[in-house]
Structure formats: structure tokens, C-alpha cells
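comment on this one:
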Amino acid sequence: MRPTKRQHKTQADFGEKVPTVGNPMRNPTEYVKMRVLAAIDMAEGKTITERIRSVSELIFEDEEGQSHRFTFRTIETWRLRYKKHGFTAICPKERSDKGKTRKVSPEDRPQAIKGNSKIRL
């Protein structure tokens, strides 16, 4: 016998309009992350796991009105980073290779293929 999927009540189950979920490629702001973390304290459940599961079923709006929903794993990661390193841990960081080319120039390609340690592919 296969286990059944857990049934989640959504706003649609109560006759409410369900907002579309925002662009998944856009990273949420610190403001949204802090709202999600604050919701854990107010969520129903006896354990932290139950409360995070409850929050993962909620929809949050960002400053531009886009709706977002976050997985249990994402929320748990944010919570642990915040607990360990504070607010700065949930702030986005610039890429270390920002502004640098990631391609090997045609002149350097033969050296890179030969295995020159100065040039990396």
C-alpha cells in the first residue's frame, strides 16, 4: 500500500483567490526573509519542525506585491544561518567573480588545453 500525499489546505479550498507565485529566479529581499522567520514564532505547532512546515504553506508578498512561497528546506536554511550568524547571514552577497570574464580567450585556449596551471577553464 502506497502512502498518500499529505493534503494541504490552500486559500482556494476556502473560496479565496490564490495569488500567482512570483518569479522563482529572483532572490527574496532581507525584508521578506525576516517576515518568514518571524512567522515561525507565531505559527501553530509544538515543535520547530511543525511550525516551519506550517510557515512553508503560507504565501508571502514582497515589497513589489509579488507573492512567494518557500519550501521547508529554504526556511530551515535561513533560520539556521540567522541563528548562527545574525542578520548579515541572510543578506545577499555579491559574486566574487562579478565583472570578470569567465571565458578563455582564443589565444590562451591551447595553453589551457595543455594543462598550464596559470590558466583555468
